[in-house]
Design a protein that fits this description.
Layout (H helix, E strand, L loop, with lengths): L1 E6 L3 H12 L4 E7 L2 H6 L6 E4 L8 H11 L4 E6 L4 H10 L3 E4 L7 H9 L4 E2 L1 H12 L10 H11 L4 H7 L4 H15 L4 H11 L1
Parallel strand pairs: 1-2, 1-3, 3-4, 4-5, 5-6
Helix pairs in contact: 7-9, 8-9
Length: 203
Amino acid sequence: MKQIIIIEDDIHLAHEMQENINSIENMHCRHVFINPIDYLENPIEADFFLLDIVMPEMSGLEMIERILKLYPKSVIIMNTIQDDSETIFKALQLGASGYIDKQSFETKFTEVFECIGNGGAYMTPKIARRVIEFFNNPRTIMQELTVREKDIVNGILDGLSYKMIASKHDLALDTVRMYVKKVYRKLSINSKSELFKLMRSRL
């Protein structure tokens, strides 16, 4: 019997998914958590985790790392309304094996678990299209930047402060500020908010 844990702040959706999963042979979901912190205070091992991304106190992206550190053999499946390319690739980079957009809740979980259980990865059609569009784009915004400039941009997109970026890459704070100015000038933007908008439009 495969054990599934749901971490989802919409309790009604969580219980609907739980009921759906418990109707599948050899699949069982006993535990539902509406807050990542609640789970971390009493972690339980499971074969599969269904994770939302936007949740109180801690994001699902951060939870991927926390769960896999505790249970490296567990499989993470994202179930979220976040369908922008940067979030999708961040989740996959962190170790997620599946990505379902909530607008496709009619997804048959039997298919999802069978696909991943057989060594594959699962994405709903809308998410798969985002991935295809990314690889079909011959010139993404990141290709316009140097390696160090990419490090700085990724730090900003991850929500790090300039001081944290400097510490992560062993740079002086003024050096980070210099790189930020170069990035803004190269991309013809003037702020972090414009950087986020530009990345989303080009990815």
